Amino acid sequence: MSKNEKKIIECLNKIFQSEMAGIVRYLHYSFMIMGHNRIPIQKWFRDQASESIAHTTAVGEWITSYGGHPPVLAAKMEESNKHGVDQILNESLTFEEESLRLYHDLAKVAVEAGDIALEEFARGQIMEETQHIFEVKKMLRKN
What is the mean pLDDT of each run of 10 residues along the chain (143 residues)? Predict the structure, then answer.
């Protein structure tokens, strides 16, 4: 295995663990939403969990394509035990910003390796994560 492949797998493994944590995080948030806006916000968090499953699956396929072994553990998650909508959305924003950083790291490694397909995958994920950040920021705005 080349040095570039090792760097790619290392980067993909971090993303895999982060996306696995996203599944748990967003499902947890969906359970903790209470109040008159529960249904649309709960659905949004469940949709985010489903998207994290899709991302995890795609990243796992990239890992095995490079001869790696997807990690069994999710990234470490903090539980604030504060479940107000604004608190949860702020935690989501932090998570999305970290995800964006990880995908930027992947894009950089892909460019260094000359892997255009992996770079395009990373760029697509960067677009999605950026859009998520925009949405969460809009949700946090108070007219």
Answer: 91 97 95 92 96 97 96 81 88 95 98 97 98 96 85
Which CATH code fits 3-74+82-140? 1.20.1260.10
pLDDT at 73: 86
pLDDT digits (tens, 9 = 90+) for 19-39: 999 999 999 999 999 998 899
Q: What is the DSSP string of the chain?
A: --HHHHHHHHHHHHHHHHHHHHHHHHHHHHHH--STTHHHHHHHHHHHHHHHHHHHHHHHHHHHHTT----SSPPP--------HHHHHHHHHHHHHHHHHHHHHHHHHHHHHT-HHHHHHHHHHHHHHHHHHHHHHHHH---
Q: Domain limits of the chain?
A: 3-74+82-140
